[in-house]
Design brief:
The protein is α/β, with parallel strands linked by helices. The chain has two domains: 256 residues, Zn peptidases (Aminopeptidase, 3-Layer(aba) Sandwich); 104 residues, Alpha-Beta Plaits, CATH 3.30.70. A six-stranded mixed β-sheet has the order 1-2-6-3-7-15, with helices on both faces. Strands 10-11-9-12 form a four-stranded antiparallel β-sheet. The longest helix has 18 residues. It is globular and about 80 Å long. The mean pLDDT is 95.
Length: 379
């Protein structure tokens, strides 16, 4: 029988909860974590943005000093159509791999931060404050963390944030933002044999797509995140061949940089598409950036060599995280993305996370917390 650490055992338990999104329900998983954290002496508050979609904020301490915040999400993407070799909710271990939907993204990271917080909490001084923010709905646009950010009183005050997304335990200082737009064009239907009697919405959409192909953001590339990008990912129009289509719709995926305001950008896209386009937002998550020279970032970098075999250098990633809305809610607090597993394994069939990285992440988080609260290091 395989012997596992408390961290890996918790990760296996979390994998057992079906929290697929869309269409999922994170309530049972969040409730389990509530009991776990309350048993460890944390005060836990829940807030749901929809039925069955709660997020939790757990706190230990008085809040007199700026807190360290560990953050992550429990929802996962769907399984996909390809068959799994392992039970996606079984938490099976083979060698150094823990398999299951969410093992990598990011129930391994959630388990590591919960165990680390429970280890550190009893050692905190009376005026120390430690926060965990564990949310629903990240995969469809950070809905849980954005909901909490709109109810600022729930979050408390944090001086630094660690988001446990999969990075191979390498600390990342930023990510691109995501602005997903839908643009609808309307026309007038008519018989396909008499197109002059109608007004073809597909032609309008196609003309607009041509303009988007050469869209100019009007800003230089970021030194670490690169330049913004735009991709037309979907194009839908018409119901049958022998009718003039009266509606066409395109989906636009824009990845943004710090300093690129999404309201301004939406207006720029509207101007580019023309007044006939009905533009609406689908996902709106700002870019995340923490200057690598920030003293806390440098402190974390100095913690890392025993765990990753090198001193980190500034790196970023393209995918978005809950770090963006939380950093804004916490007044621009320095934020790092750091967690077990590889982002290239996330969302795949037979998703897995290295067991050794999950255990290492718990120790990394513990070291970060010990440094923040000026505690002696312990095993």
């Amino acid at each position: 029988m395989t012997t596992t650490s408390p961290t890996v055992s918790l990760a296996r338990t979390l994998i057992g909860f079906d929290t697929r999104n869309p269409g999922g329900d994170e309530s049972a998983c969040i409730e389990y974590l509530c009991h776990h954290l309350r048993d460890a002496g944390f005060t836990v508050e829940l807030s749901a943005f929809a039925e069955g979609r709660p997020s939790l904020v757990a706190r230990r301490g008085s809040g007199d000093r700026p807190a360290l915040c560990f953050a992550g999400h429990v929802d996962t993407v769907p399984l996909g159509k390809a068959p799994w070799r392992t039970d996606p909710f079984g938490g099976e271990i083979e060698g150094d791999r823990l398999y299951g939907r969410g093992a990598c993204d990011m129930k391994g990271g959630i388990a590591a931060m919960v165990i680390a917080a429970c280890r550190v909490a009893p050692r905190l001084a009376a005026n120390d404050d430690l926060i965990l923010v564990i949310v629903a709905g990240e995969e469809t646009g950070c809905l849980g963390s954005r909901h909490l950010a709109e109810h600022r009183e729930l979050l408390g005050d944090a001086g630094a944030v660690v988001v446990g997304e999969p990075t191979g335990n390498y600390p990342l200082v930023g990510h691109k933002g995501a602005l997903w737009l839908s643009a609808r064009f309307r026309g007038l239907t008519a018989h396909g044999a008499m197109p002059e009697k109608g007004d073809n919405a597909v032609y309008k959409a196609a003309t607009a797509v041509g303009r988007l192909q050469h869209f100019d953001f009007g800003m230089p590339p970021h030194p670490h995140l690169g330049g913004p990008s735009l991709n037309v990912g979907t194009f839908h129009g018409g119901l049958n061949i022998n009718s003039v289509p009266d509606v066409a719709e395109i989906g636009i995926d824009i990845r943004t940089m710090p300093g690129l305001d999404h309201n301004d950008l939406t207006r720029m896209i509207q101007d580019c598409l023309g007044s006939e386009a009905e533009v609406s937002r689908l996902i709106d998550v700002n870019a995340l950036w923490t200057p690598p020279e920030h003293p806390w970032v440098q402190t974390v970098f100095r913690i890392m060599p025993p765990f990753i075999g090198e001193t980190p250098t500034p790196r970023t990633v393209a995918f978005f995280t809950d770090g963006a809305p939380l950093q804004a809610a916490y007044g621009g607090a320095p934020t790092l993305i750091l967690g077990p597993g590889a982002s290239t394994i996330a969302h795949r069939t037979d998703e897995f996370c290295p067991v050794s990285e999950i255990d290492a992440a718990a120790m990394i988080y513990q070291r970060i917390a010990e440094q923040w609260y000026e505690l002696p290091a312990s095993d």
